[in-house]
Amino acid sequence: MLRSLYYNFLFQLSENKITKPLKLIDRLTHLTASTTSGIFKLLSMRAIRTRSQERILNLLKNIKKGISAQDIYVELRNTNQSMGLATVYRSLDVLKLEGIVQVRNLANGEALYSLAQQDKHHLTCLQCGVSIPISQCPVHDLEDQLESSHKFKVFYHTLEFFGLCSECQVNQATGISQ
Questions:
Q1: Which one of 1, 3, 6, 12 has the lowest number of neighbouring Cβ atoms within 10 Å?
Q2: Pairing relation of β-strands 131-133 and 101-105?
Q3: CB within 8 A of 61, min separation 6: which ones?
Q4: How many CB atoms lie within 10 A of CB 158?
């Protein structure tokens, strides 16, 4: 009986038919520890997502810009898809490790999460916090070289320059502080 459940699980996993993997694993509680750990390895390799991860991914697809974990929490709560803030952070960590979500840390320490579809580059003012996106990327060739020489899979990269925007430079020159 247990063996047939296990093989059924593996078949469903290979066909991407498992929608509630943990429920199925609960039915397999009598399996040995090595078999159970093998199932979890397969789950991670197949990138089966939790409901929380799916909700966060859908939100990020719709927003199409960087958003903080706290704002994700608020947005989900406002659409009656609430989950705990700790769950938001855990889900973002998993998605980040899979290379699906990227994080950008601002000068003030806030982290902004977005889908890792393209590399993002910014000029960030240390005085007022304005962040100006830039389209040029001088490191794409370097990225290819690093992947090749170190046998390292790069999911994305960020490039950020910190300094003063033109308005803050003028304000600093005239002695006005924001």
A1: 1
A2: unpaired
A3: 115
A4: 13
